[in-house]
Design brief:
about 70 residues; single chain; alpha+beta; 1 helix
């Protein structure tokens, strides 16, 4: 498997993309109710950064985290 991590800045907004080419995430995954330690850590990071998250699971998994920067 392959994991790619990209970080870019655009107009005062940082976008972090984490992609893997694995089997993907379950369609019914809810980050706010997941008991997974990894998802709990992601949710805490998003709250601290005052950011947003978007997840896609087509060919692997894409997780986009966007947060404002000063």
């Amino acid at each position: 498997g392959t994991i790619e991590i990209n970080l870019k800045e655009e107009e005062g907004l940082m976008t972090l993309l984490v992609h893997d080419d694995g089997v993907g995430l379950p369609a019914d995954l809810d980050i706010e109710t997941s008991s997974s330690l990894g998802m709990s850590l992601i949710e805490t990071l998003i709250e601290q950064l005052e950011g947003t998250i978007k997840m896609q699971s087509d060919q692997g998994t894409d997780i986009y985290i966007e947060f404002p920067i000063e």
